[in-house]
Design goal:
three-stranded mixed beta sheet, 73 residues, two-stranded antiparallel sheet, flat, mainly beta
């Protein structure tokens, strides 16, 4: 699994926001030579069992969940 997730948020009339969220257990977390890693962009994955995918979607394999709060002002 990659140690980061790229995010792009856009809507008409506003600049596009592009950012990365980093996995807290990534062994290379402290070695990002280009940008560094801000603590508030670090998250942790939670292993989820097969058949537990939300919103009635059919996912019969194990998956990983992450939750982070994004506040735009």
């Amino acid at each position: 699994m990659d140690g980061r997730v790229d995010n792009h948020i856009s809507t008409l009339g506003y600049r596009t926001l592009v950012f990365e969220v980093f996995a807290g257990d990534d062994p290379y977390l402290d070695q990002d030579a280009v940008f560094g890693v801000r603590e508030d962009l670090v998250m942790f994955y939670k292993d989820m069992p097969a058949g537990s995918f939300p919103r009635d979607m059919r996912c019969q394999v194990k998956w990983m969940d992450r939750i982070f709060k994004l506040i735009l002002t």
